[in-house]
Amino acid sequence: MSTPSDIPTDIPTDDPIDDKTATADAAPARESAAGLAAVVYNPIKVNLDDIKRAVAAEEAKAGWGETLWFETSKEDPGQGAAQAAIDAGATMVIAAGGDGTVRAVAEVVHGSDAALALLPSGTGNLLARNLNLTLDNLEHSIGTAFSGKDRKVDIARIEIRHEDDSVSKHAFLVMAGLGLDAKMLASTNDELKAKIGWLAYVGAIITALRDRNQLRLRYSLDGGPTKSVRAHTVIVGNTGTLTANVLLLPEAVIDDGQFEMLMLRPEGFVHWVQIVVKVLWENGVLRRTPLGRRMMTKEVEALNYVKGRQITVKLSHPEEIELDGDGFGTATAFKARVLPGGLRVRVPQE
């Protein structure tokens, strides 16, 4: 067992990650009848003419001002556009794009007086899935933005120390991952993904599974003792459901103020079978009914879960890291912290 002092001192375990400390108390729900909306859109992911028609109809119905429009680019995936929207007075920012656009916009919107609305337009749409929002109905999504209500959800802040000792700061809403999922994303062809969606991941998954490299890491949960582990994959989740409604993190709740951290530690074919059965059958099917929950097994050796509000991790060597489905290079250490209720998202009225 290592001691807490082994955690890297340049990514502190106690101090706030940054000065954006929005919480449920600091971000009161706003239910005003009218406001000013802005759309931050990824031109590759959306049909702008269709969105503009739907927005024009809903903004008039709701009595809102004329909506502002901001386009993302390769150089600016959404942060700059979202900041421009807020500086222009937007009280609601609609993220029209994939998970990367949503994450980038939320990174700026959280801690402001604006709310985030979602127009799911990508392959995963993971935040929308975890909020049970409509995924393929443009009119319903825009209607929810203008006539829905605010729901406070958690947002995570993360500091990543890279191989060159630089430290970058980001937000994420769904998951941060090391190992299989990060390597899979790094191996996925973006052009193929745009053409065939999630099927593009199949070849990348096979490539990642052939990699027998294990993660060697030390982690501290909520400032507690440091533990040393070896794992194939580590995922820190703010929400638990993936594409195809796969429930990977069964106790990750988007508004409970905590992460759920998953460590996959398979050693051979039998352990992979245990993982598949646990995730797809038990989490995906049995857990959904009272009778099924009584039939579930205890934790398996190859699959471990822990929960906490802050996690600090140091890796023995640089590893690929992903946030909400986008690669962020390699990491040698990171610290992630939940900001409870730090983001308001528009959801349908009851």
TrEMBL record:
<keyword id="KW-0067">ATP-binding</keyword>
<comment type="similarity">
    <text>Belongs to the diacylglycerol/lipid kinase family.</text>
</comment>
<dbReference type="Pfam" id="PF19279">
    <property type="entry name" value="YegS_C"/>
</dbReference>
<protein>
    <submittedName>
        <fullName>Diacylglycerol kinase</fullName>
    </submittedName>
</protein>
<feature type="domain" description="DAGKc">
    <location>
        <begin position="32"/>
        <end position="162"/>
    </location>
</feature>
<feature type="region of interest" description="Disordered">
    <location>
        <begin position="1"/>
        <end position="28"/>
    </location>
</feature>
<keyword id="KW-0808">Transferase</keyword>
<dbReference type="InterPro" id="IPR001206">
    <property type="entry name" value="Diacylglycerol_kinase_cat_dom"/>
</dbReference>
<dbReference type="InterPro" id="IPR017438">
    <property type="entry name" value="ATP-NAD_kinase_N"/>
</dbReference>
<keyword id="KW-1208">Phospholipid metabolism</keyword>
<dbReference type="InterPro" id="IPR045540">
    <property type="entry name" value="YegS/DAGK_C"/>
</dbReference>
<dbReference type="InterPro" id="IPR016064">
    <property type="entry name" value="NAD/diacylglycerol_kinase_sf"/>
</dbReference>
<keyword id="KW-0547">Nucleotide-binding</keyword>
<keyword id="KW-0444">Lipid biosynthesis</keyword>
<feature type="compositionally biased region" description="Low complexity">
    <location>
        <begin position="1"/>
        <end position="11"/>
    </location>
</feature>
<keyword id="KW-0443">Lipid metabolism</keyword>
<dbReference type="Pfam" id="PF00781">
    <property type="entry name" value="DAGK_cat"/>
</dbReference>
<dbReference type="GO" id="GO:0005524">
    <property type="term" value="F:ATP binding"/>
</dbReference>
<keyword id="KW-0418">Kinase</keyword>
<dbReference type="GO" id="GO:0016301">
    <property type="term" value="F:kinase activity"/>
</dbReference>
<dbReference type="GO" id="GO:0008654">
    <property type="term" value="P:phospholipid biosynthetic process"/>
</dbReference>
<keyword id="KW-0594">Phospholipid biosynthesis</keyword>
<dbReference type="InterPro" id="IPR050187">
    <property type="entry name" value="Lipid_Phosphate_FormReg"/>
</dbReference>
